[in-house]
Amino acid sequence: MFERFTVPARETIQRAILEALGQAGHYVATEHILLALTDEGDDPGRRVLRELGVERAAVERALRDSAATGGLTESDASALATLGIDLDEVRRRAEEAFGPGALHPGYQPKARRFGGPTLSPGAKQVLEVSLREAIARKDDHIGTEHLLLALGRVRRDLAAGVLEALGAGPDAVRAKLPNPAKPKRRAS
Q1: 113 vs 165, higher pLDDT
Q2: Cβ(33)–Cβ(16) under 8 Å?
Q3: With a threshold of 0.85, does the pTM exceed it?
Q4: 183 pLDDT exceeds 50?
Q5: HEC profile of 113-173
Q6: What is the CA radius of gyration of the chain?
Q7: Would you say 60 and 34 are in contact if contact means Cβ atoms under 8 Å apart?
Q8: Rounded Cα–Cα distance for residues 17 and 11 (Å)
């Protein structure tokens, strides 16, 4: 599959692996791919993020906020509080029992394989969906724009919520991308 990836898309996946390793992670998750897309570059996915005003600092802040609540929103925390459930206490106990980040949506307490991080189910799905995006757009490659579109479509993972919160959901991204390639007509 990676043979169809552009050089910037491959580099993005490599950067995502470095992001995971830098966080002592055992897996590469969608948020690592998103962080990698906020690095410098002049490829379509990074250009769209810049045009939408999505910067690395804002992504990091949104990820920290989401991790601090286990992916729950303020309204979720308020609803739980009305039931007498203290989210901070739940988080403290979960991390005490299972380790830091136990409530993080992509948490997987698996051992490393082959000395490096593995792809989370969400990250694997992003790679699959990026291929579908390229096919739907009739592109002959998988680029950073396809990775970005896929990140927004894998709804159960953290990156999609962060992108939506920062105004870079799938519709906003599609609006900034050039129209898909038109199929070439054969001469008769």
Answers
A1: 165
A2: yes
A3: no
A4: yes
A5: ECCECEECHHHHHHHHHHHHHHHHCCCCCECHHHHHHHHHHCCCCHHHHHHHHCCCCHHHH
A6: 18
A7: no
A8: 10
Range of the domain at 31: 2-56+113-176
> How much is the average pLDDT of 50-70?
86
The vertex-91 CA angle with 90 and 94, nearest 5°, equals: 85
**Separation of alpha carbons 10 and 140, rounded Å:** 15
Mean pLDDT over each residue of the chain, to the nearest integer: 83
Rounded CA-CA distance 44/8 in Å is 9
Q: What distance lies between CA 43 and its chain's CA centroid?
A: 17
Q: What is the pLDDT of residues 77-136, one digit of tens each?
A: 777 788 888 877 777 776 677 666 656 555 555 444 455 688 999 999 999 999 999 999
Integer CA distances (angstroms), 48 to 53, 87, 97, 106, 172, in order: 9, 36, 41, 25, 9
Of 157, 161, 84, whose CA–CA distance to 124 is shortest?
157
In-domain check, residue 30: yes
Residue in the block written with tokens 């792809």: 119
Amino acid found at 93 = R
CATH of residue 6 = 1.10.1780.10
